[in-house]
Amino acid sequence: MKLPHPRTGGPFDSPVLPGSGWPGEPATRRTPVAQTPAQVSTMATGARTVEQVDAGVSVCRACPRLVQWREEVAVVKRKSFSGQPYWGRPAPGFGSTRPRVLVVGLAPAAHGANRTGRVFTGDRSGDFLFGALYRIGLANQATCTDSADGLVLNAVRVAAAVRCAPPGNAPTPAERGNCAPWLDAEWRLTGTDVRVIVALGGFAWQAALSMIRRAGGSVGTPAPKFGHGTIATLEIPGRSVQLLGCYHPSQQNTFTGRLTPAMMDDVFATAVAISA
Q: Which residues make Cβ contacts (< 8 Å) with residue 121, sequence separation at least 6?
């Protein structure tokens, strides 16, 4: 049964089918679908535009456990969203295609991006993140309710290290490795102007270090350790980039005061200063 999009009212299946008109949909019905990790690697390496990467990410089916979980959530749903269609697919990156700041998170939330189709959108983590970006001038609004809400980022791109919502917010090491080529391709195609990578949490920090290594860069020995506000200089061919740590804006961190709005504002103020 098709259900109305909460903003546009357009009817959609849940999970949403590629090419059906979902706001921000990057794929068509003809977009190639990666069914295996090897196909992910081939498609990501062969992508020539970030739009191709986004489309490929959005239909990827290379991790059976994640595919089953994200689609099950899209059918069972949370009671408060029972009348809405769920995206139920991987969440591609969002924002500028020529960013100076790249924000890397862990993975979509089951009832956040897995519902809305846009990374860090539709849950309290996103409210915290985009609120900070708005206050520092990197976003045009603080709200992030759905993929048609008008949010625009300024010289910033947001991506997740793993693109599908994982059970218990815990992707396996194999699933992390399967998804890594998508982040590598996104970096190759959008990272030319990036001066600072903001890693939201320790997992994103490790993902960023691995991404830089695979891109031919150097992270030093021993590798820099994650910490809130920690800055590490990473050498890449022809230049350097700063890796900046920030606690993840999960409810576990924001509800307990481990991460406050002021703390996140300070991180992005630093990112803006570095990237200027």
A: 94, 112, 113, 144, 145, 146, 147, 149, 151
